[in-house]
């Protein structure tokens, strides 16, 4: 994740070799409803971009990261979060993210 001072925003870099080691941290973050209830849509989208970057095509550890996330049942949880958020833009992001697992 990087911060652009000139544009005053955070963004996820496309090129990295991150490995998802602790899925419990991801799950606790995703299931923290209070965080998502008060967070701006941009925070939700940044979190989705971060997860998506771990499983994107060409990522050196793509399959390992996918296996880690599938092991904890990430897809049903992501869809459950979307049901609460009702954000059209977030739905498109989740659909894009979930396509890596199909």
Please outline the helices and strands.
Blueprint: E1 2-4, E2 9-11, H1 23-30, H2 33-38, H3 41-55, H4 62-71, H5 74-85, H6 88-98
Antiparallel strand pairs: 1-2
Task: Give a nutshell description of this structure.
Helix content is about 60%, strand content about 5%. The chain has about 100 residues and is mainly alpha-helical. The protein has a two-stranded antiparallel ribbon with strand order 1-2.
**Strand order in the largest sheet:** 1-2
What is the count of structural domains?
1
What is the end-to-end distance? Answer: 26 Å
Main structural class: mainly alpha
Index terms:
mainly alpha, 2 strands, 102 residues, 6 helices
Word description of this protein:
The chain has a two-stranded antiparallel ribbon. It has one domain. By secondary structure, it is mainly alpha-helical. The protein has six helices and two strands. It is globular. β1 (2-4) and β2 (9-11) form a beta hairpin. Helices cover 61% and strands 6% of the residues. It has helices at 23-30, 33-38, 41-55, 62-71, 74-85, 88-98; strands spanning 2-4, 9-11.
């Amino acid at each position: 994740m990087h911060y652009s001072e000139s544009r005053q925003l955070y963004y996820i870099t496309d090129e990295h070799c991150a490995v998802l080691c602790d899925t419990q941290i991801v799950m606790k973050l995703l299931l923290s409803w209070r965080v998502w209830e008060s967070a701006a849509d941009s925070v939700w989208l940044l979190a989705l971009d971060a997860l998506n970057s771990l499983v994107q095509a060409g990522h050196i550890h793509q399959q390992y990261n996918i296996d880690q996330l599938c092991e904890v049942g990430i897809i049903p949880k992501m869809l459950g979060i979307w049901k609460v958020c009702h954000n059209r833009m977030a739905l498109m992001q989740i659909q894009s993210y979930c396509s890596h697992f199909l």
